[in-house]
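Researcher: Hi, I'm a grad student and pretty new to this. My advisor asked me to get structures for two proteins we've been looking at. I'm not sure of the right format, so I'll just paste the first sequence and hope you can take it from there.
Model: That works fine. Here's the first sequence with its structure tokens right after it:
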Amino acid sequence: MELTTPERTEPGSEVARLYREESPRLWRAIFAYTGNREVTDDAVAEAFAQVIRRGIAVRTPRAWVWRAGFRIAAGELKRRTEIGEMPPDLGIREIEDDRLLPALGRLTPRQRAVIVLRYYAGYRPVEIASILDTAPSTVRVHLLRARRRLAQLLEDNDAT
């Protein structure tokens, strides 16, 4: 999806369509990453506000809002940690498997991000690397470690 100039289409119509199509999935993905509704709401809203402000300067709005949303959320989580706020409660059930969200909460933030972007949002490792501003090889390492840790956590949960 590419934004066009206002002369060719109604202003904001591409962003409105993008919002309708992507915001529910983006919200759920960022929520799975942060576990915090407030941070998630703010990150998604700010990502779309920024794409509106930038207009046609954004060549790939879909990828841009995903990247911006995750970066905004990560920045807010870091800020909250630095000022001593409690970590997010990942016990809220927003994903079908009741065991998955708490297990995701026990991963590192980077592992959680790559798992959500890969298996929920469907991005390839190279795309995840671009979103998270890291190397594709680093994404693959985090995916491997996160899958192993999730398997262990879910297996431990089954044993109890």
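Researcher: Oh nice, that was easy. Here's the second one.
Model: And its structure:
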Amino acid sequence: MTRPLKNSGIDALESIFGRSNASKDELLDLKEELELRTTQRASTLLEKVSERISSLPKKQTPASTALPRMEPKQASLPLEIPGFSTAGATPQISVPVVVPTPKATVPSAKQNQPVLTEISVEQAYRILRVTTAASWDAIEASRRELVSHAQPDKTAGIPADKRSQLQAEAQQVNRAYRKLLEAKQANTG
């Protein structure tokens, strides 16, 4: 809370109140300051300021631009189910009604990931943890093993940052596999 009138004495505060053209903002600042003071003069002035603020005309906002403040509410809605009778009673369901609030812009996980660069065939072998002499079956088995660590059923209980790291590693493994697959197809075709 800022206190623009913090260094003003009670005489200056009474002077601000005494002006006939004191704005509502000035009166609100005055009220906030006086609420923090304990002298008799401050208490008396606070009562006068509060009365003047309450007597100010309320500013009317056109209905088209008015945005009412909505709070979550419990609502009971009647529920009628065809073919179901509750002997004269209407079943009630409580439905929480929550008004969404604007959220701050949070970068998505894709924005946090590094920019993917082209990998070489040698790098692909290293990522898949196989040698250049490995058979295609060994390459596929290694890929399956490395990617399996990022499966949702295996990552369910771990923190989100570790889970996203495992997913990024699995994507890298898949890129390496595709690179070796392209190289294989280029050699055979």
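Researcher: Is there anything I should tell my advisor about the second?
Model: You could mention this: The chain has a mean pLDDT of 78.
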